[in-house]
Write a structure and sequence with these properties.
About 25% of the residues lie in helices and about 20% in strands. It has helices at about 10-60, 245-255, 265-275, and strands at about 65, 75, 90-100, 110-120, 135-140, 170, 180, 190, 195-205, 210, 235-245, 275-280. The strands form three sheets. Strands 1, 2, 3, 4, 5 and 8 form a six-stranded antiparallel beta sheet that branches. It has a four-stranded antiparallel beta sheet with strand order 10-9-11-12, covered by helices on one side. It has a two-stranded parallel ribbon with strand order 6-7.
Length: about 290
C-alpha cells in the first residue's frame, strides 16, 4: 500500500517564504519597470511639447506680415515691474501673421494678431497660468461668427485693429487706442499651448546681425507709440524654451511652497532637471 506524505509545518513555512520572496522580487521588478517607463514617457513628452511649441511659433513668425509704418512688431524684453504687474516681466512677442491656426473657423482671413508670452512666476501668489506657454490669436471674426474688425463708429467692440494703430501698453487703458496689450484688452483670450515651462526668451536681430533690444513702457499702465527706428521688424528671431517634466514641476512647486521668492534649494533642483531647447527662425525681408 502506497503511503501518503504530507507537508509538515516547517516545510510549509519555508515554501511560503520562498514564494513570498519570489513575489517580492517580481513586484520590485514590475515597480522599477513602471518607474522607468513613467520617467521615459515624461521625458518623451518634454521633447514632444517642445517640438509642438517651436513648430507653432516658427510657422507664425515665418508668416509674419509687415508694412512699414502700418503694422507693428512688438518685442517686449524682460522687465522689472512690481506687483501687481510681475506676471508681465517675461519677454513677449506681438505681431501680425497669416497663421495656419486662426482662433476660430469663422475667420474669413487668416491674417491675425498673434501674441506669445509666459507669465512671470509670482511664487507666493499662485496663478492658474503659471508654467503655461500662452498664445493669443485675434482674427476678423469672433467665436460666435460676428465681426471682430474694430471701427470707432460701427464696431467699437472689435479687437482686431492693427492697421495704422501703433500704440502699445502692457495692460489696462482704453482698448480702442492700443494695438497690442499683454492682457486681453486688445485681443481675444489667451490659450494654453504647453505646460511646465520655466523660461521663454527671444533674441531678435537685424539683417546685419545686430541685436534689437526691444522696448517696454516705463510702467505697465503707460502707453507708448514706438518709432520704426526703435521697433524695427527683425530679420531673424531665436527662441529659447526651457521645460520641466510633470513630476519635477510638482516637486519644484512643493519646494517653493508659499515663499515670496524662489528658495535656493528649489532653484538648484530646477536647474538640475530643466531641459533647454533653442531654434533660430529666419524671417528675411518684409519691407524693412
Amino acid at each position: 500500500m502506497k503511503v501518503k506524505r504530507y507537508f509538515n509545518l516547517v516545510e510549509l513555512m519555508v515554501a511560503m517564504t520562498v514564494f513570498s520572496m519570489v513575489m517580492l522580487m517580481v513586484f520590485m521588478l514590475f515597480s522599477s519597470s513602471m518607474m522607468v517607463w513613467r520617467k521615459s514617457s515624461q521625458q518623451n513628452q518634454i521633447f514632444e511639447n517642445a517640438r509642438m511649441a517651436m513648430d507653432l511659433m516658427s510657422r507664425d513668425l515665418q508668416c509674419a506680415y509687415y508694412e512699414a509704418g502700418k503694422t507693428p512688431f512688438w518685442f517686449k524684453p524682460a522687465t522689472t515691474y512690481v506687483a501687481p504687474d510681475k506676471q508681465y516681466n517675461n519677454p513677449s512677442l506681438c505681431f501680425m501673421a497669416t497663421t495656419l491656426v486662426p482662433p476660430n473657423p469663422y475667420c474669413q482671413s487668416k491674417t491675425c494678431e498673434i501674441k506669445y508670452q509666459l507669465y512671470g512666476m509670482t511664487f507666493g501668489t499662485k496663478n492658474a497660468n503659471d508654467g503655461w506657454l500662452l498664445r493669443s490669436a485675434t482674427g476678423d471674426s469672433k467665436s460666435d461668427g460676428t465681426d471682430n474688425l474694430y471701427n470707432a463708429s460701427t464696431n467699437p467692440t472689435g479687437t482686431l485693429r492693427y492697421y495704422n494703430f501703433y500704440t502699445v501698453r502692457v495692460r489696462g487703458g482704453a482698448p480702442s487706442t492700443q494695438v497690442f496689450t499683454l492682457d486681453i484688452g486688445s485681443s481675444d483670450a489667451w490659450e494654453n499651448v504647453i505646460p511646465y515651462v520655466t523660461s521663454l526668451t527671444f533674441e531678435c536681430n537685424k539683417r546685419d546681425g545686430s541685436v534689437i533690444t526691444g522696448y517696454s513702457p516705463a510702467t505697465a499702465t503707460t502707453s507708448i507709440a514706438p518709432t520704426a527706428a526703435a521697433s524695427p521688424f527683425p530679420f531673424s528671431v531665436k527662441i529659447n524654451l526651457t521645460l520641466l517634466d510633470m513630476d519635477s514641476w510638482n516637486i519644484w512647486m512643493a519646494k517653493i511652497g508659499s515663499s515670496a521668492s524662489e528658495p535656493a534649494a528649489a532653484a538648484t533642483f530646477r536647474k538640475q532637471r530643466e531641459r533647454q531647447f533653442s531654434r533660430m527662425i529666419l524671417i528675411g525681408e518684409r519691407g524693412q
